[in-house]
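>> received
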Amino acid sequence: MLLAMTVTPAVSVSAEIEPAVDPVRTEIAALLDRLAASGCRFQRNGQWYAGELARDHLQRKLDYLAKRTTLTSTEQFIELAATRSSLSGQAYQVQCGEAPALASSAWLLEELGRLRESPGAQASASVAVD
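>> returned
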């Protein structure tokens, strides 16, 4: 008796599923983009960095934090990751132009308020980060 073997090709059905949009992460990304584009300097551990380097540093801290907890607000991110060095404990500062340096938390919270007043700017900034 001859057994008929039917060979069916393996079909991989993997539809691309877009991850759910996390509004907190979207808002944080827009805020970090504002820092990068601000022309301001960012101080951490006694050294000044351009806004783009500050964004990259804070993004790494965000990624680390996001693996360990669920952020419920942008303010929580600022408090936990964007206020001080986790290594030295020194407060971060932001200086724009000739203005005196501000605590990073004060600058970020002020920019967050502006960001929330202009939702169109937030949407366009989040697209650039993705």
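>> The longest strand covers residues 41-44.
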